[in-house]
Amino acid sequence: MLSKLIKHEFRATSRIMWPVFLGMLALTALMRFSQLLLNGGHIPWLLQLIGVLLVIGFVMGLFALAFAPLVLSACRWRDHVLKDEGYLTLTLPVSLHQLLISKLIVSAVWYAAAFIVGLLSLLIAASGWSTFQYVPDLFNDVFTAFFGMEASLRSHALLIVFELFCNFVFAVSAAELVVYAAYSIGYSFNKRKELWTVILILVFFQLAQFTAIAMIGLFIQTFPDTWISLDANNLPTGIELLLLWGMLGELLFCAIGYAVTWYFTTKKLNLE
Amino acid sequence: MSIFECKALTRNYGAKTVLDSIDLTIEPGRIVGLLGPNGSGKTTLIKLANGLLTPTSGEILIAGKAPCRATKAIVSYLPDRNTLPGWMTIAQALDYYGDFYSDFRRGVAEAMLMNLGLDRTQKIKTLSKGMREKTQLILTMSRDAKLYLLDEPIGGVDPATRDYILRTIIGNYSEDAAVIISTHLIADVEQILDEVVFLREGQVMLHESVETIRDEKGKSVDELFREVFRC
Question: If we measure between CA atoms, which residue out of A6, A15, A45, A52 comes closest to residue A30?
């Protein structure tokens, strides 16, 4: 059933995400084209204005790209589970755990895709078309450097890449679960559901920031030697520990968000 | 084994008791009208049976089990509102039901849609209210379920559509399944009911077969309802 939930979640979200990605790439191409035009001789003021507006649009587009999967996922949770569609969704022969996991998986995939589209947009914006021919060489250089490393350094590098990947997945999941939790609590009220949700999202993200600061302080206190005598030998270990610590914090928020969402969706569900 | 059973079922919303220690048993093969005025607890009872609410006390059993994944697989539920996403086409809605319900009879659904002249590529949001209700009913009744829970299936539709809906219900449930229909429009559904349950202020006032009401009380269900719930 999980695979079917994932299939239908992709079907529901792809009709939004593909246009967002295509729109971002089109905006980037337009912006790049306008910059090439502006580099020419005398340009009318209207074209200059359009060029500036396209640059502003590009920057805003990058921000929108960074938040699009999270916003879409939050809206899907509200519409698919907490509003009228919930009568259908919550009477399917699937568990809430499967439903939550399917949404987290799909959202993580969209985040990864948004990351790639964002990177591609920056690459197009920052370099000429001819630069793209060097991209394969860049990958080649990275792999050559990786396999040229000492065995111990290579294991550190692999571990750091793995930890970065886990941090990415857990951070995305934590952000989503916290938003789901806020929605699930907000929609358990009879009135002003949206207002309660917004207030709770702000409160939860503020709490997350305080917790992150407290955890960094705790980390420095717990591993003081790693940071006082930081050098080339213990730098990889320090980074690994820091990433691991970050993962613990994200997992903590995942667990809290998951438990709150599960409780309010099963025990305090208040469909209209 | 009973397909639907409530044992001292109570549900409160805050301080208000919506269902008050209900005992009720429904056997397979029956079409039961769940009747009562607004706020009598009909929708709450149906939501409890679907696991959309949890009982405050007592229990509700579907084929001997509390609402869970297994019971959701044998219960076909028609809520009193449109629950299909507007962006879906009718064909995608069929896929959705087909993927999640192993008892979904796609051929039956397609035949009924064809009879209505509905285009499968049409989006749900482009359908009229009546067509949306019919589509939802077709999806619900195309399942070979053990229990059909229909919440106000004929509310807000014209008399011709009501007839179509009632014909669809009668023509598509199997003999070993039970159908529970919650409605205010008693005169319209009376012809298809085997039993009625009158709910008032969260309590079962009457659970009787339609035949007994007609033979012993000499009244139609509609007449009895008007008498019992006279304001």
Answer: A52
Q: Calculate how close chain A gets to B99, using CA atoms only, in Å.
A: 7
Predicted complex: ipTM over 0.90: no
Structure tokens at A156: 């550190």
pLDDT digits (tens, 9 = 90+) for B13-69: 888 888 999 999 999 988 999 998 888 889 999 999 999 988 999 999 999 999 999
Backbone angles phi, psi at A179, to 5 degrees: -70, -40
B104 touches chain A (CB under 8 A): no
B77 touches chain A (CB under 8 A): yes
If pLDDT is split at 50, 70 and 90, which confidence band does A153 have? confident
Q: What is the pLDDT of residues A105-124, one digit of tens each?
A: 999 999 999 999 998 888 88
Give the pLDDT confidence score for residue A228 in this predicted structure: 61
Count the neighbouring beta carbons within 10 Å of the beta carbon of residue B155: 13
Task: Identify from A81, A87, A269 which residue to disrupt to test chain B contact, counting B C-beta atoms within 10 A and taking the largest count.
Answer: A87
User: Which strand ranges, in their side-by-side order, compose the sheet holding B16-26?
Assistant: B16-26, B4-13, B57-62
Q: What residue has token string 């999806």? A: B139
- Residues of chain B scoring pLDDT < 70: 156, 231
Which residue of chain B has the CA closest to A271?
A: B52
**Counting beta carbons within 10 angstroms of the beta carbon of residue B150, is it exposed (0 to 12), middle (13 to 18) or buried (19 or more)?**
buried
Q: What residues in chain A have their Cβ under 8 A from chain B's Cβ atoms?
A: 1, 4, 7-8, 11-12, 15, 79-80, 84-88, 90-95, 266-267, 269, 271
A85 vs B75, B77, B85: nearest CB: B85
Minimal CA separation from A3 to chain B, in Å? 10
Tally Cβ neighbours within 10 Å of residue A97. Answer: 11
- For the entire predicted model, the pTM comes to 0.84
> What pLDDT, on a 0 to 100 scale, did the predictor assign at position B46?
93
Nearest to A93 among B72, B81, B82 (CB): B72
Give the Cβ contact number of residue B200 at 10 Å. Answer: 16
* CATH number for the domain whose boundaries are B4-82+146-228: 3.40.50.300
